[in-house]
Amino acid sequence: MKKYLVIGNPIDHSMSPELHNFWLKKNNIDGYYNKEKLNEKDLKALFLKIKNKEISGVNVTVPFKKKVIPFLDELSLDAKNTQSVNTIHLQSGKIIGYNTDVTGFELAIKKLEYDVEGKKILILGAGGVVPSIIFSLNKMKASNITVSNRTKIKAENLKKLFKNLKTVNWGEIPDFDMVINATSVGLRGQDELNLDFSKVGEGKFFYDIIYNPQETNFLKKAKELGNGIENGKKMFIYQAAQAFKIWHDVEPEINKEVSELLV
Ligand code: ATR
């Protein structure tokens, strides 16, 4: 039986095993997908296992999306452009790093029929998934992208990868059409961002990368204020589907059953 893994720290909240094991079964593939909490010092041993074919595929989440890069033989174009890897696969003896978050986000937004072209985007947070979101938004021709992060230097550092990026201090809310919560605030139900969106007017689009809980306080309040909202579930499913395709060369079906797995 082939082994697959998602690594991260923390990792408890990840629902990747539910999704991948469902698709493995559906497609009669003899494999099992687990989650594993790692420390940075464990990465070397992990890559030995990949090279020795003890592990057939790995998904990577916070805080390792960049840290795995030195261990890889090659990067896909999206991984190179974002310096961020979320899917690893051994191909012809080479360990390749892919980034399926970029396409995952893009497919999710397209599915919603939200047109990013010409829109002003505000991103809250500067963690592991943010380079992928920025890259994706640039591809979809957002007119400008501003990042606000509690620790401003992390937002500033993103400018090395994305020259057109703007940054503002945490707490400042510039004019925007779409705001994306890419912080971890809201993962625990009661968490709240201490930001005031009551003066931005209604009819904006509030997107939360978090999908569990389904409606964070960020989204709840936005809805009360008359804005459109969406959580990160579709993005999560699409990035997983792309990883599944890379490993198994099968497009997994995305349907209601899949969506209901993640509640
Ligand atoms: P990492 O920062 O290790 O990549 P992440 O989960 O991808 O981890 O990112 C967490 C994000 O949530 C960061 O942008 C973090 O801000 P800092 O860079 O200042 O740590 C943000 N975050 C976490 N808790 C927060 C809080 N209470 N208020 C505002 N932002 C918070």
Order of helices and strands: EHEHEEHEEHEHEHEEEHEHH
Low-pLDDT parts are none
What is the terminal separation in angstroms?
28 Å
Please provide the count of β strands.
Answer: 12
Characterise the protein shown here:
- With 263 residues, the protein is α/β, with parallel strands linked by helices.
- It is 32% helix and 21% strand.
- It is built from nine helices and twelve strands.
- The chain has helices spanning 16-26, 43-51, 77-82, 101-111, 130-139, 152-157, 217-224, 233-248, 256-261; strands at residues 2-8, 31-37, 57-60, 74-75, 87-91, 94-98, 120-124, 144-148, 166-168, 178-181, 205-208, 228-230.
- The strands form two sheets. A six-stranded mixed sheet has the order 2-1-3-5-6-4. Strands 9-8-7-10-11-12 form a six-stranded parallel sheet, sandwiched between helices.
- The protein binds 2'-monophosphoadenosine-5'-diphosphate (ATR).
Task: Give structural attributes.
alpha/beta, six-stranded mixed beta sheet, 21% strand, globular
Quick rundown:
The chain is an alpha/beta fold and 263 residues long.
Topology of this structure?
Blueprint: E1 2-8, H1 16-26, E2 31-37, H2 43-51, E3 57-60, E4 74-75, H3 77-82, E5 87-91, E6 94-98, H4 101-111, E7 120-124, H5 130-139, E8 144-148, H6 152-157, E9 166-168, E10 178-181, E11 205-208, H7 217-224, E12 228-230, H8 233-248, H9 256-261
Parallel strand pairs: 1-2, 1-3, 4-6, 7-8, 7-10, 8-9, 10-11, 11-12
Antiparallel strand pairs: 3-5, 5-6
The structure holds 2'-monophosphoadenosine-5'-diphosphate.
Residues 62-63, 125-128, 149-151, 154, 183-185 line the site of 2'-monophosphoadenosine-5'-diphosphate.
